């Protein structure tokens, strides 16, 4: 690799250290903000260090691309609400994959025409790996974006022999990559590699259902990182190799954690067509549902000693976290113990609930992970579910035919009384009915989470402590 100017070497060194620290700090809510800032400074240093490389002769195109990226990126960050972060992440991965694929293709053809000696077996092999992963991440992430944004059907699209077709395509692409590695100047085969990668990305995501999408996004993140790392080898850029490897491995670890949280195996997620969005046909209208008013809910909460609040996607949509904080304050002031049960896939992105509750200044020590809150729920007077549905669905525990059977849930049904704030009897993300709502101990609090909680807070406040 070429000798870099001292400033670039130093900036790369500091940037690499900041990337590692950023990941470390991002893993805990109290240090997460610091982690974001460290990552941003690291990336700025990496860009500045690269811009100062002496081989850059003309900044015009770089300035134009930076401008275009900024024009697209800023609205993407500010206009998309927090609840759309998964699709925004998928879109970012697709841009990353496209960039990596295009750089690899450009380098391959440039070297074929101008410096064929640079296309060694090793470099060509790495370019093939980069292009394969880059382009499949591009179309795969676009498909994930389409499904999460509901532009495409969220249910799995399956057909007979699907796995065989997918694996055969992948095998052909790998054979082409091996052939190109052995005979680097067979440029007539290169477009076939690109086409197969693009097609494989689409077919890979087709059979994946909505509920498994978080895991797949983490996996695509990992692919984008690995392809960027390969690009680092092609461009002889050590920082890109490090950053890509960090991205690739952290994405991979995250997908393993999420697979565990949802009790899925990798093979199941990739090839099993799980998470099928089936609206079960049980006649919910015929089964009884008890509902209550904000005042009745306030009375029940005030007569409790221990309350568990279980937030979900609906709290995020309603932006009800500050009302949750007000209720938390009112109840704790009256000596009622309030804890929060956080399911690892509640909401629409990993850590979604933690971020919102931290924003509302709920003390971290009150946020319990699923296993911890489950140990406490049988001794809890009231489980107050705020806009959560799939993550408290007992069908995951009891109903073998349920698409979410086997997914660990928060055992809200084990509390003495269950209250659920949601607007209707509509299902959640997985599209399945929730038997919890029909239990004798359950009271439905129908309404928007923010306004219903506001009413409960008012009703609690007027009661003497
Ligand atoms: P959920 O199962 O999607 O249910 C959310 C509930 O919130 C809905 O039933 C909805 O019922 C209610 N709701 C919506 N807007 C509301 C409002 N303004 N006020 C009150 N309630 C409202 O959510 P969850 O229990 O959090 O489960 C998360 C699901 O998303 C899982 O299936 C998970 O696999 C999936 N997922 C997770 C991630 C991740 O990384 N965390 C990413 C993608 C997908 P109404 O319409 O009746 O109000």
Head-to-tail CA distance between termini: 71 Å
Low-confidence stretches: 273-285
Please work out how many helical segments DSSP would assign: 17
The quaternary state of the protein chains shown equals single chain
Helix and strand composition category: alpha/beta
- Average pLDDT confidence is 90
Helix share, percent? 55-70%
Put the structure in a nutshell.
This protein is α/β, with parallel strands linked by helices and 465 residues long. It is built from 17 helices and 6 strands.
Characterise the protein shown here.
With about 475 residues, the chain is of the alpha/beta class. Helices cover about 60% and strands about 5% of the residues. α1 packs antiparallel against α2 and α5 runs antiparallel to α6. About 5% of the residues have low confidence. Bound molecules: NADP nicotinamide-adenine-dinucleotide phosphate. NADP nicotinamide-adenine-dinucleotide phosphate binds next to α8, α12 and β5.
